[in-house]
Amino acid sequence: MPSPDSVQESAPASRRSKITPERAQELYTAVLDLVRESGYESLTMEGVAARTRCGKSTLYRQWGSKPELVVAALHGTRRMRLPDIDTGTLAGDLLEAARAIGEASGRDTPLMHALSHAALQSPELLCALREALILPEIAAIDAMVRRARARGEVAADLPGAEYVAAQLLGVMRARPLLEGRYADAAYLCGFVEKAILPGLGLGLGLTAEAPAGVLTDGDPGTPES
Question: Is the CB of residue 93 less than 8 Å from the CB of residue 86?
């Protein structure tokens, strides 16, 4: 028997509740916070309604089901952190990207882990997760590499250049599994300096230090249980 959260209680568009953009953002933030705290499987429309003081019937009329609400929340909270980075060098760009990704890892990493299993069962959810958290950063890092090639910093046919985004974003997700700690800004900057740049022929002896004020909830490098 399908769960209540998987059953759509549809309504004509004309009967949908009027929800302001500001209220929608509050709802989206609450939905993703609940996913981080308890996982996707434990998320319920009842829980969202209680957290947000919103009627459950309003949630169903507006979004239809739990999966649709989570997809909307991912799209609605999408943020672009990396596209404006352009320091003039690939090393500088990647270190700035590492800092930006590291500052958000305490929120993005648990969200990706919480949604991963469900996303593999739902093409729509997987697409939303990739579009919200992964593809914009891949595109921005790939653009950094293209600019470096155009400047002649790295060879146009350098084999490792196409894997830079996979390395940086992959280690962000892998570190909690391997070491039980988030890949914070200091860790990612060190990874860029010691693992990525030498592979690109750019081992410049840079010092990767996390900027003041970086890091996250509680013990900044350790995932919450």
Answer: yes
